[in-house]
């Protein structure tokens, strides 16, 4: 029988980093790896798979799989590390396995590998050995991304649930259609709802069991690499939702892993999430830090993901999140802030931005916690962007009102400018707004279909012209009527119908105009990029503002949220001369009435409401108008090209 110097093999890896929280590439050491090991009897190198798992409190650990009829082979514990390992010869990719752990409590448990890079799903729980053979073709994209500055670039994000975009299609099958569609619509990025393995399809990926395993519902890990590679080669960035705040309760996964609360807090006041019925990571444990930061880097490094949208950050920041008095434990200073989670988020953001220049770290954070997007060395959390949930809530409440009542809620639209530059914001109309009885976007709008579609066109054009990056969830771009469900494809058939078709074309044109004119994004996070023209006309439900790039690009954006059109609305402007209408959401191509158009507007050099010039314009009911200034001479731009233009 051959004998292997397994302890020596493991000592060649950095297990010390696991214990200190400093191992940020843990997937290279733990899990299942196809390798060769020295036979100490013959000196030969024997091919096979090395299985390693962290279970420091276990009394015994077996690896079982299709190679031993699931009977279990005993694993060796490497002293001082809490890591157990076993080499199984002449095995490779495709091997199915589990760990059988005798816990500190004397109970045997079958567990999936926390570091598995491929897993069974849909009722099966084995981990699968996987060795990637994929060869990337996106070097031009990755080189460009490294120097890219998201804050001063166009970013319009198409959020999607991969399985429900076109049901039945996997990572490879969806690639051509998705690239063609996103390119036609003009988004700069797609954002996938979580793709890490999750057993319950209805969780949409937010209750994770396999943090390092792309869900096998749609193919193997190299199939996902193919999809991302193809998107990159087409000039489309890829963001993925990441869920480090809580994990699934399935007994075969992370919970009570070695008979103790290894990944989660033992006390349910810290370790159990009452809203979602999930467990909360122990962010103060170094090994858990290593596990999670390695996971974040894994997606960026191994799958070339361009950004992570971090789910439920608010639930991580506060110990009393969604808890009543007596149901939470204060921090060491008696406060409600989760100091360990805050330290972890700073660590993750600082490390990832340092290791992967040009990536986007995005916080879904719904409170007024200060400094979410401030750099770590300046006292912030270090995220690049934050979802603007306040803007989203106020805006949706406003458009859900009948137009005759909107005059008393004018502040719902103007208020977000009070804090617009306190963080780097993304304006999200996400999946959360079209689920759980909230109704689809079009069904939120009162009255008949003409008003519904007109209001949606006005609303989305207001969003696209407002300071901040843009995000919409799939189906919103053509006015899907039913709520989102993961069980069915989008209602693609309605895109040929009146109203839906026009809205679809509007998104295409808005994205093209948005990306072509740097006034919309060059100074998104600076007050110099925005100026009110009309912010107080509540009686008419009219809002008008100026977007500027700080050089010579100016766009006047006007939205009328009332059902009354205006023939001669006097608009103050910063420059006299020619202003050309580049967008009118009432145009017949968008299924509007086609009237109240402006074409070319001549602004006269006469003061009006603090501006040195003015023009009388037409504003349709429930519509937006964009007017671009045309100076006599425009210097060519030497700014970085929009993200989708790569060498």
Oligomer: single chain
Largest sheet: 8 strands, parallel, barrel
Average residue pLDDT: 94
Poorly predicted runs of 5 or more residues: 634-647
- Summarize the amount of helix as a percent range: 10-25%
Proportion of residues in extended strands: 15-25%
Q: What is the 3D form?
A: elongated
Radius of gyration, CA atoms, in whole angstroms: 27 Å
- Cα distance, first to last residue? 57 Å
Q: How would you characterize the overall build of this protein?
A:
With 647 residues, the chain is an alpha/beta fold. It contains 15 helices and 29 strands. Strands 10-11-14-17-18-19-20-21 form an eight-stranded parallel barrel. Helix 5 runs parallel beside helix 6 (221-233). The longest helix has 17 residues, at 286-302. The radius of gyration is 27 Å and the shape is elongated. It starts with 5 loop residues before the first helix and ends in an 18-residue tail after the last strand. The relative contact order is 0.09. The model is unreliable at 634-647 (pLDDT under 50).
């Amino acid at each position: 029988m051959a004998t292997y110097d397994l302890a020596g093999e493991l000592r060649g890896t950095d297990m010390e980093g696991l214990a200190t929280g400093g191992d940020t590439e843990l997937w290279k050491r733990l899990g299942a790896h196809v390798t060769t090991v020295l036979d100490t009897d013959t000196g030969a190198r024997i091919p096979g798979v090395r299985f390693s798992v962290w279970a420091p409190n276990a009394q015994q650990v077996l690896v079982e799989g299709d190679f031993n009829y699931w009977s279990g082979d005993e694993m060796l514990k490497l002293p001082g590390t809490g890591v157990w390992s076993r080499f199984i010869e002449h095995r490779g990719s495709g091997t199915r396995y589990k760990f059988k752990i005798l816990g500190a409590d004397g109970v045997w448990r079958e567990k999936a590998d926390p570091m598995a890079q491929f897993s069974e799903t849909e009722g099966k729980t084995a981990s699968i050995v996987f060795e990637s053979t994929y060869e990337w073709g996106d070097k031009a994209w990755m080189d460009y991304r490294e120097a890219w500055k998201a804050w001063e670039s166009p970013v319009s994000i198409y959020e999607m649930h991969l399985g429900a975009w076109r049901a039945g299609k996997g990572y490879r099958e969806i690639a051509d259609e998705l690239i063609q569609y996103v390119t036609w619509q003009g988004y700069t990025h797609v954002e996938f709802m979580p793709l890490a393995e999750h057993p319950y399809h209805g969780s949409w990926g937010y209750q994770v069991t396999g943090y390092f395993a792309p869900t096998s519902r749609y193919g193997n890990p190299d199939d996902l690499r193919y999809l991302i590679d193809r998107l990159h080669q087409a000039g489309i960035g890829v963001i993925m939702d990441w869920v480090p705040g809580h994990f699934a309760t399935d007994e075969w996964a992370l919970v009570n892993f070695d008979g103790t609360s290894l990944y989660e807090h033992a006390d349910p006041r810290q370790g159990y999430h009452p809203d979602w019925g999930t467990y909360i990571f122990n962010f103060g444990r170094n090994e858990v830090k290593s596990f999670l930061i390695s996971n974040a880097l894994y997606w960026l490094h191994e799958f070339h993901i361009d950004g992570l949208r971090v789910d439920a950050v608010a639930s991580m920041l506060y110990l009393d999140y969604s808890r009543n008095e007596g149901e939470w434990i204060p921090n060491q200073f008696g406060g409600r802030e989760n100091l360990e989670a805050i330290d972890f988020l700073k660590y993750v953001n600082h490390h990832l931005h340092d290791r992967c220049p040009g990536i986007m770290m995005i916080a879904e954070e719904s409170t007024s916690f200060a400094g979410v997007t401030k750099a770590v060395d300046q006292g912030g959390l270090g995220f690049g962007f934050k979802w603007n949930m306040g803007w989203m809530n106020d805006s949706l409440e406003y458009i859900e009102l009948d137009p005759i009542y909107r005059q008393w809620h004018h502040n719902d639209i103007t208020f977000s400018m009070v804090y617009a530059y306190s963080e780097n914001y993304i304006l999200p109309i996400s999946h959360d707004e079209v689920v759980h009885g909230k109704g689809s976007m079009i069904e939120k709008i009162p009255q008949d279909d003409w008003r519904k579609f007109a209001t949606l066109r006005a609303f989305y054009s207001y969003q696209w012209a407002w300071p901040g990056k843009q995000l919409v969830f799939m189906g919103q771009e053509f006015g899907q009527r039913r709520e989102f469900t993961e069980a069915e494809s989008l209602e693609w058939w309605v895109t040929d119908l009146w109203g839906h078709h026009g809205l679809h074309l509007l998104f295409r044109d808005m994205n093209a105009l948005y990306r072509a004119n740097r006034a919309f994004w060059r100074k998104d996070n600076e007050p110099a990029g925005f100026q009110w023209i009309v912010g107080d006309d509540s009686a008419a439900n009219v809002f008008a503002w100026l977007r500027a790039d700080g050089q010579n690009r100016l766009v006047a954006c006007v939205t009328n949220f009332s059902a009354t059109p205006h023939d001669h609305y006097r608009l103050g402007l910063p420059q006299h001369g020619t202003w050309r209408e580049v967008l009118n959401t009432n145009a017949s191509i968008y299924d509007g009435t086609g009237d109240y158009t402006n074409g070319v507007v001549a602004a006269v050099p006469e003061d009006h409401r603090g501006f040195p010039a003015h023009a009388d314009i037409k504003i349709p009911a429930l519509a937006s108008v964009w007017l671009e200034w045309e100076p006599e001479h425009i210097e060519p731009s030497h700014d970085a090209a929009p993200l989708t233009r790569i060498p």
